[in-house]
Amino acid sequence: MKTTAKLLALAIIALIAITSCKKEDNSTVNSNTNIATNAQQGTWKITYYSSNGTDETNHYTGYTFQFNSGGTIAATNSSGSVSGTWSNGNDDSQVKFILNFGTTSPFDELNNDWHVTQQSSSIMKLEDVSGGNGGTDLLTFEKI
Question: What CATH number is attached to the domain comprising 95?
Answer without folding.
Answer: 2.40.128.270
